[in-house]
Specification:
The protein is mainly β. It comes from Streptomyces cynarae.
């Protein structure tokens, strides 16, 4: 996903697109990283790296309904929040909150992070989001949650021991003390948290103590990282995790956003995973610059396999990058009905509906071009750019017609249309930055239309990208571009995602 640049620099973010709340662990020479997935299924993407820079998705931890049930009333930006990934006693441990009503905190294990992961161990007595796991020298497991509450647990059964106790909740008066991570580093236990909310005021602070239960003294230079009140191109920096590099140096993975356009700045890819160097001074971490380019690390880079731009749907199962809204029943989504095609059977009548049949991938580049070959057959469906049920653009085919639709808040409109012959048609979306005009200039432009038989592209709609941004829609996710069926059965021969910039 990341590329080494010719001038001895690496590109930040290291995991671009809607990949927030990173948690990382090292096992020998290998690194593994997970992120939040919210209302999408399968949940919790899992990445592998040998160098902390180049990350390859190797699976999704929650890929079975027995692990993850997101009902139709799961709100957008609900679902799976802030996992913590750790390796202890020969196995991987993953603890996470499903904020869907009645779900709560859950713990999963695996011997191979690519899967399969276990069914959940429920933690009904652990209240709060963003759970963390840490083991002390005698094997006791401590779970710390947002707000600075901590309790001893049995990670095999989910049993808790004693009442939860407060440890440290960050800067007095700061909102949203969350994302706790507890580590033993040298002679101290360190408690790292995010605070200030995950918007422009986001920050990372830290405290240390002699035991995992405290008392904790805060770092005198807290926050150790924040970009609030700056013009830096990366904003909302926070929700961090610490890890050692191959040479023993320390690094931080964290979330951030890349706002574009005028005021207040709109980020459209969601919160992404960035990398920053860490040094230690007087027993406290000092975080280096979080910049779009980082100096190449001291160790050799190990690029992963290049991701093919086109998916021909020639495998029996979808690749791990594909995600759906809330669930993916096989009777509504399969590559086995028509060889080399993805078949979607409609359930919800449009992308406005929570049970829409949708299969997409995260938009990971600020500029990109997407094409898909669609056979609407006796149905209706097409290609969409989705943020949530109330914010999406799509180009769809049915009954000899292609049309572009836009949903923004309570407004839904047909932007443009044209007739087409019966049979498969190539639909397209292009996303590019908007040249700045004034303080109201949006972040990008989304064009939707149809590719003609001679390869030329006919635009049926040109739309302002700000309305598919977090600053407009709210929530915690980013854009997902994909395929959907809104009526009947729709077949897709291929899907092509071509990055045209960072």
């Amino acid at each position: 996903m990341s590329e080494m640049q010719q001038d001895a620099a690496v590109t930040n973010p290291v995991v671009p697109g809607f990949h927030p709340d990173p948690s990382v662990c090292r096992v020998g020479d290998d690194y593994y990283l997970v992120c939040s997935s919210f209302e999408y299924f399968p949940g919790i993407p899992v990445f592998h790296s040998r160098d902390l820079v180049n990350w390859t998705q190797i699976g999704n931890a929650l890929d079975r309904p027995a692990q993850l049930r997101l009902t139709a009333d799961t709100r957008s930006s609900g679902g799976i929040y802030a996992p913590t990934l750790r390796h202890h006693d020969g196995r991987f441990w993953l603890i996470v909150t499903n904020v869907t009503e009645g779900a709560g905190n859950m713990l999963f294990t695996a011997t191979d992070p690519a899967g399969p992961w276990s069914d959940p161990v429920r933690l009904p007595e652990v209240k709060g989001i963003d759970p963390d796991l840490a083991w002390d020298e005698d094997g006791t497991c401590w779970c710390t949650v947002a707000g600075g509450s901590q309790v001893r647990i049995d990670p095999y059964t989910g049993e808790t021991f004693g009442p939860p106790h407060k440890v440290w909740a960050g800067t007095p008066g700061a909102q949203a003390p969350e994302a706790p991570h507890l580590y033993r580093i040298g002679e101290y236990w360190y408690l790292l948290i995010a605070e200030g909310g995950t918007e422009r005021g986001h920050a990372v602070s830290i405290a240390r103590g002699r035991t995992p239960t405290g008392p904790f003294e805060p770092c005198p230079t807290n926050p150790v990282l924040t970009h609030r009140g700056t013009h830096r191109p990366i904003q909302n920096t926070g929700h961090a995790d610490l890890v050692q590099g191959p040479d023993g140096s320390w690094w931080m993975v964290l979330l951030g956003v890349r706002p574009r356009g005028g005021t207040p700045g709109w980020h459209v890819l969601g919160r992404e995973t960035f990398l920053a160097p860490v040094t230690w001074v007087d027993g406290w971490p000092v975080v280096g610059e979080v910049t779009p380019e980082l100096p190449a690390p001291a160790w050799p880079l190990v690029p992963g396999p290049a991701e093919a731009p086109r998916d021909d749907f020639d495998l029996s199962e979808l690749r791990p990058q594909w995600i759906s809204v809330r669930d993916r029943p096989e009777e509504h989504c399969t590559t086995k009905e028509r060889a080399g095609w993805l078949t979607l059977r409609a359930r919800g009548a449009s992308l406005d509906e929570p049970d829409v049949v949708f299969v997409g991938r995260r938009q990971q580049h600020l500029t990109c071009q997407v094409r898909a070959c669609v056979d609407p057959a006796e149905g209706r469906g097409g290609l969409a750019v989705r943020l949530d049920e109330e914010h999406h653009y799509e180009v769809e085919a049915s009954d000899g017609e292609v049309r572009v639709l836009a949903r923004v808040g309570t407004l839904r409109t047909v932007v443009g249309s044209r007739s087409v012959p019966a049979g498969p048609v190539v639909l397209g979306v292009g996303i590019s930055g908007t040249p700045p005009r004034d303080s109201r200039t949006g972040p990008d432009t989304v064009t939707l239309g149809i590719e003609e038989p001679d390869g030329t592209f006919t635009v049926l709609g040109t739309l302002d990208g700000r309305y598919l941004s977090t600053e407009v829609a709210g929530g915690f996710t980013g854009r997902v571009i994909g395929l959907y069926a809104a009526a009947g059965t729709v077949h897709f021969d291929w899907f092509d995602y071509e990055p045209l910039g960072l």
